[in-house]
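User:
I would dearly like some help making sense of a protein record. Take your time, and here it is.
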Amino acid sequence: RVESEAKRLMNAGNPMEESPVGVHHSAGIVDTRNWVNALNGYQYDSMNRDVLLNLAKKAIREGYTFVWDGDVSNEGYAPEFGLAFYPKRSSMTTKKRAKLLETFETTDDHAMHAIGLAYDQYGKTYFIIKDSYGVRGPYRGLLMMSEDYFKANTICIALHRNALKLIDD
């Protein structure tokens, strides 16, 4: 048993790749060419909130769902009501967003699946989010996330690389 486990850990008998030079891993799991300038010049840690919001909305409209990762401990996350909204009267700005991150008011604590867009009677756009916490609230595990909540509380999104072509230059 110990011998077979050692063989398994060495990936013996499995196809292997070397990429980058000196790093060996199972074949077919990583292609670094997919990550070279994936954001068309934007830096991962400083992407403009409006660009990210527009990319996310375009991705959904083009049929790409995505993983939303962000803060659900802030005011406005109310799954019992099927909502995630920014409760302040003014809109989220880059300066406000920076302060939320610097003071650790916005932190990385939950990932969910964005599956669509919805609109309220006033024309405001919401992301339809599948909450992995389970079936609860009026939408039975789905919640409506406002654009300002998205801008204030998003840490990152993960989406299909072809959707990155939707970023406006």
Notes: The mean pLDDT is 82.
